[in-house]
Design brief:
Layout: H1 3-21, H2 31-39, H3 48-57, H4 59-88, H5 93-103, H6 107-114, E1 136-141, E2 144-148, H7 154-167, E3 171-177, H8 178-181, H9 191-202, E4 206-212, H10 236-249, E5 256-259, H11 276-293, E6 298-304, H12 318-327, E7 336-342, H13 370-383, E8 390-397, H14 416-433, E9 438-442, H15 446-449, H16 454-458, H17 469-479, E10 491-497
Parallel strand pairs: 2-3, 2-9, 3-4, 4-5, 5-6, 6-7, 7-8
Antiparallel strand pairs: 1-10
Helix pairs in contact: 5-13, 10-11, 11-12, 12-13, 14-17
Length: 500
């Protein structure tokens, strides 16, 4: 039992003790006070409690109570069945069980997936995706190794180009803050991003950009303007307009766009009510705009943050959020599912239930495990008839820090050697799974731009630009062909679709 639950139970017990020990006050009676009066042969004046007690003794009333109790049990069972039905979509029960069994080896794992749902009182899904007017291209790339990098500024572009060649990496991901390019509606400054994309594209790299952070003019009145909150647009059409212009400008040079970032987390959603349905509306408008500009550009659904918090205000459980995206019609509006999969202080092949007495923290929920997050998402996709699409891990990895960083204490559990071992193993696992697209390690060079911060702990280059053990391990594994990243980034399928 949690400390909170213990405190609540203790408070209730103390309140009950006070009731049992206090004398009668006005017309309020404690149950044991009346029992004592009856035992002493006294006949206190009947109260509302006496009337209720008499009613409860009546056989007809008892029959009604039994009936209500049975109906309550039926309701609970029905609710549980509805959760299973919601998660599996139209899949037959046997097929859904296969999916769950494949991703969970223990009964506890299965219950985590089957019982995940949105908080009560959550706003209904409102998305009604418009059918695609013309056929679009669903493009699929093979598994490949990518990395997320800080690309702003000419010196960093040189670092990125050299490192990707050294590592045998073919893809680079970076963030594009919409608010910096279009601070005033309709006025867009492409100068900086032109330089970045031209440089990386000329180096032969595949490019994934994550577009988020709405400008102030596009945000609704009820948004939170204080840092670190980033907002979403009041009108999804404003984002669609921006992305269509972006797609037209960089067609053939940018291969993929991830639409938003961790939208199940309060400060990435303007501190507004978290709402999968509203996100799907935004995603569908963005999908149509991007495909109108470049039918072959891959649209990645924004990666969710793995979390066990499910209160609808701070966060929504990522597996529940993904399922409700499908329920709102998202299946027609993306080519791949984005994922953010941090392993904390746990090996990549470990699952919920794994323990390490030397490192007992960050073990009590499946969101702390790289493998559980990936397999949970895959299970939801298969259950919704979407097994033909890939998961793109747009940010994954393990950090390591010699000093304790508040809020990131688990970083001190990972040695540099473990960081290297876990990262190489994760790439190998994803390659073997067969349903993973380009995978982006977090991060290449933030130790050079943000030294001493938590961002530094994940950087595979040190502040001086020298490779850390994880960098050396990745370079060696690529050269030894243990990771088949070299040449694997080609298009493996183009499929014309009018809906899915």
């Amino acid at each position: 039992m949690s400390s909170t639950a213990k405190n609540v139970c203790s408070a209730i017990t103390k309140k009950g003790d006070q009731c049992r020990n206090r004398p009668m006050h006005n017309s309020t009676y404690c149950w044991n006070h009346r029992a004592q009066a009856k035992q002493a042969g006294q006949s206190p004046r009947p109260t509302v409690l006496d009337v209720v007690s008499a009613l409860l003794d009546h056989p007809v009333v008892r029959l009604l109570l039994v009936t209500v109790g049975l109906l309550g049990i039926i309701s609970v069972v029905s609710d549980a069945l509805n959760i299973r039905t919601s998660l599996r979509g139209n899949q037959p029960e046997t097929e859904f069980k296969k999916v769950v069994d494949a991703m969970a080896t223990t009964q506890a794992d299965q219950l985590v997936l089957l019982q995940t749902r949105l908080p009560s009182g959550f706003p209904p899904n409102t998305a009604v995706p418009t059918p695609l007017a013309t056929p679009q291209v669903h493009r699929m790339y093979g598994f490949d190794c990518g990395i997320e990098a800080q690309v702003w500024g000419e010196p960093q572009l040189g670092v990125v180009e050299h490192a990707t060649k050294d590592l045998g990496v073919h893809w680079v991901k970076f963030s594009v803050p919409w608010k910096l390019i279009e601070p005033t509606q309709g006025t867009r400054n492409w100068t900086q991003i032109d330089a970045v994309i031209n440089h990386l594209s000329s180096a032969g790299l595949g490019i994934l950009v994550t577009v988020s952070k709405a400008p102030d003019w596009a945000r609704p009145a009820n948004t939170d303007w204080g840092p670190p909150v980033e907002g979403v647009p009041a009108d999804p059409g404003t984002l669609a307009d921006f992305l269509e212009a972006f797609g037209q400008r960089y067609s053939g040079r940018v291969q993929a766009i991830e639409v938003w970032n961790e939208q199940n987390l309060w400060y990435q959603w303007g501190h507004e009510p978290l709402d999968p349905g509203r996100y799907v509306t935004m995603l569908c408008r963005a999908y149509q705009a991007i495909k109108a500009a470049d039918p072959g550009m891959v649209v990645v659904a924004g990666a969710l943050t793995p979390t066990g918090v499910n209160d609808g205000a701070v966060a929504i459980d990522d597996v529940a959020y993904l399922q409700h995206m499908y329920a709102a019609g998202a299946k027609k509006c993306f080519d791949a599912v984005g994922a953010h999969t941090s392993g904390y202080n746990n090996p990549p092949d470990a699952k919920y239930g794994y323990s390490n007495p030397a490192e007992p923290s960050f073990k009590n929920h499946r969101s702390f495990f790289f493998r559980d997050t990936m397999e949970s998402y895959r299970a939801v996709m298969v259950a919704n008839g979407d097994s033909g699409k890939q998961i793109w891990p747009t940010s994954f990895g393990w950090g390591s820090s010699l000093k304790s960083i508040p809020g990131y204490e688990y970083l001190s559990d990972n040695t540099p050697a473990e960081q290297a071992q876990f990262t190489v193993k994760a790439y190998q696992m994803m390659q073997d799974w067969g349903w993973i697209g380009p995978s982006f390690l977090w991060n290449l060079n933030y130790a050079m731009t943000d030294p001493g911060t938590e961002l530094d702990a994940w950087s595979i280059l040190d502040p001086a630009g020298k490779g850390r053990p994880v960098y050396d391990a990745l370079a060696a594994s690529a050269n030894d062909r243990n990771l088949l990243c070299l040449g694997a980034g080609a298009v493996v399928a183009d499929r014309a679709v009018t809906g899915r």
